Automatic annotation (TrEMBL):
Belongs to the short-chain dehydrogenases/reductases (SDR) family. InterPro entries: NAD(P)-bd_dom_sf, Sc_DH/Rdtase_CS, SDR_fam. The lineage of its organism: Bacteria, Bacillati, Actinomycetota, Actinomycetes, Frankiales. It comes from the Bacteria. This is SDR family NAD(P)-dependent oxidoreductase. It comes from Frankia umida. Gene3D superfamilies: NAD(P)-binding Rossmann-like Domain (3.40.50.720).
Amino acid sequence: MSTRSRPAFRDGGLTVLANRVARTGATTPAWPPRTAVVTGASSGIGREAALLLAAGGCRSLLVGRNGAALDEVAAATESHRIAVDLAVPGAEINVASRATELLGDIDLVVCSAGLGAAGPFDAMSPDAIAQLVAVNVLSPMALVRAMLPAMLDRGHGRILIVGSIAGSLGVRGEVAYSATKAAMVGFTDALRAEVGRRGITVTLCIPGVVDTPFFQRRGAPYVRRWPRPIPPALVAERMLAATGRGRAEVWTPAWLRGAVRIHDAAPSVYRGLAGVFG
Ligand SMILES: NC(=O)c1ccc[n+]([C@@H]2O[C@H](COP(=O)([O-])OP(=O)(O)OC[C@H]3O[C@@H](n4cnc5c(N)ncnc54)[C@H](OP(=O)(O)O)[C@@H]3O)[C@@H](O)[C@H]2O)c1
């Protein structure tokens, strides 16, 4: 199936959303969105999200560092692109002002840019920890902070953050990465509580293992036989559908939610299972 005919925008959740919004006085966020900013759009999940958004008629500003990869996605989606290092403080101001200049009001912000790190925590350099926090924690917070006032003024907008199962379970050998993704659980929960009644939806996507260059980039390939990596297009489709419905979170694959329930309800059982399955 071509990306242009994918069903992510057949949204049955808009009625529920409209009723909720009517009670709070905020306006209905547009869906499909007309405009979006997508970070991590040069690769993997963010790239697939950009393709799907374009298929739904959305005009986007694509954000990444790799100019050639961004050019390819921008050409395929007739989008704008900006090559910036989001780890550099202030980059988000550049992105936000360019987005407004090129697209006007922004309906959706997708924060997919991120990087991994694997290996024993006691061998990890402070610089590597700082870089991970800068990209995975500070950059989405800074970008949302930069985009939020205009959304609040308009009384509607959508925010989609790509977290990780590592943020809910804590993965051995990925201590710092797990901590950065756990930060996104707190960030999205608190932000939703703060702005949810003012027309802003906040969705956290919690993927498991996804077949992208993520593992190669972190310098440690994915070697487990289970769970098998899922395609990034599937993650993008599910997270955008959940965002359209105003859902708080979306787990991909969905069974991950069960693993977290065991982790939360019976931590010692979970630790035993994790010891067996890794
Ligand atoms: N793959 C998985 O198994 C998995 C599982 C759970 C969660 N996730 C999360 O999913 C998100 C997307 O990852 P992915 O799997 O799609 O990985 P990916 O293919 O490696 O894509 C990562 C994206 O982040 C961008 N990025 C990284 N550092 C950046 C920086 N300093 N400034 C600007 N952009 C930067 C990259 O842009 P450039 O290449 O242009 O630098 C790239 O577009 C990440 O937040 C990751 O933590 C992935």
